Amino acid sequence: IEAILVGTPVIATNVSGVPELIEDNVTGLLVRPRDKNSLREAMARMIADPAVRSRLSAQAAKKADYYGVGRMVGEYEDMYKGVTGPRGRS
User: Fold this and answer.
1) Distance CA 76, CA 54 (A)
2) CB of 81 within 8 A of CB of 89?
3) What is the pTM of this model?
């Protein structure tokens, strides 16, 4: 997320929760785990095509905003308010 927020195009392995943030060829490039050829091809594509880097970075930044601190703080506040009720601050 941090790399995306500063405009770094991302190549990541298609494992665990990674595809929730990185959508292949939309917000970054996903490669198969332990597949050095897939990684090599993705790296070559990023290096060779500045338009792809720019497009992926821009799309990823839009999606990363969803995971930003402001949203997370708001969700925590809502959660605590739900637990403590509408009493307000002491």
Assistant:
1) 33
2) no
3) 0.72
